[in-house]
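stuck on this one:
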Amino acid sequence: MNRRQIAAVVVACLGTVASLAVATTARAAAGCQVDYRVSSQWAGGFTAAITIKNLGDPINGWQLAWALPAGQTITQAWGFTASGAVVATNASYNAAIGTGGSVEVGFNGTWTGSNPVPTAFTLNGTACTGATAPTTPPPTAPTTPPTTPPTTPPATTPPATTATVAKDGTGQYTTVQAAIDAVPSTNTTRRVITIKAGTYREIVTINKPYVTLQGLGSAPGQTVIVNNHSNAGGYGTSNSATVFVKARDFAGTNLTMANDYGEGSQAVAVNVNGDRAVFTNVRFLGNQDTLLVNNYRHYFVNSYVEGTVDFIFGGASAVFHNSTIHEKRSSGGPITAANTDASLTYGILFYKSTITGAANNVTQLGRPWGPAAQVLFRECSLSATMKTAQPWTDMSENTWKNARFFEYKNTGAGAGTNSNRPQLSDAAAVNYTPQRYLAGSDGWNPVI
């Protein structure tokens, strides 16, 4: 192992582990294994990862709890929701862990005095027994973050699960793409790429599964990935993106992804074309065609999207939860241009989100890029920016009246009902939840 950066503790779970929220009697009777690793450490802070491996029968839902030593706290997490008592719940990724399967979660934290390993791991309420001492001594924390990467790598380097990108050379990589390129194409475990605050002007393509991009700034605006390709520049609309997500199980958090081409042509910030993508606390900045939800299933939570025309568009099943959507042009325009296939029940859902704009009575909810477009604004706060008399409009030969456009229990100055504002019934609403939009055939549920 990399003794300079990684402290590991392996806890062998020998007892019977009952599963949580399991519809069958299956249980992890043969136990489990929990690996805790500190992969990056600096004065007062660290990044850690925990891998849970199931050695018994399949588990269809999990919670992992542990005790943090005095002085340790969790400041950011990915792959799970952490309660104040440090209970990691399968909220953001796979709920199921098959026999021999594993799931990895990670977090950033702070420490004072020293940075020892956690203790008292339990899985689904059953204590994991075994040695709790690290298999290698914890690294001595430097007084300041390193200014240069190690000049001599260890003789044997295990596959890294966390890497750091920094423009100033204080990480392993100076570009985001270089860190992604270093991930094996056959990757099967969560790879967390942390990105220090700064502006990274590059084109980024995520073509490896289970990759997380995690901004290390105190806010998403401090870590920015940006470029300025456009349809007018000869790239075409879909190929003008700054960030391409082409692999499954991508996660982005605490970042800004932008296209600063300006107005006058389609210029995509992010083209999402990989299944089960999760974006948490991410800003998407652009003008026309900011965010292309191209195919598959995507979940956007606590995020921000701005643009001018059709700035959320595509044929995916996508959920925007507790997010802000902003029409930045004073003359307004349609927010969505959905191209949902007629065979799909679910297209784009805005759930408990806020719609704002630069001017009043100018913004439209959307128009149908495809004739079977499906869009629902559910329990959202619609500001006075909404064009209340006619919030839906036609696109080319596709009329909005033939599309599957609905509202449900929206509030705010821009909310209302009339013959141009179809409302979902209470009976139908039970089938149009975020979980239904994202479940697919594998029961995926990232909703928090």
Summary: The chain has two domains: 7-127, 162-439.
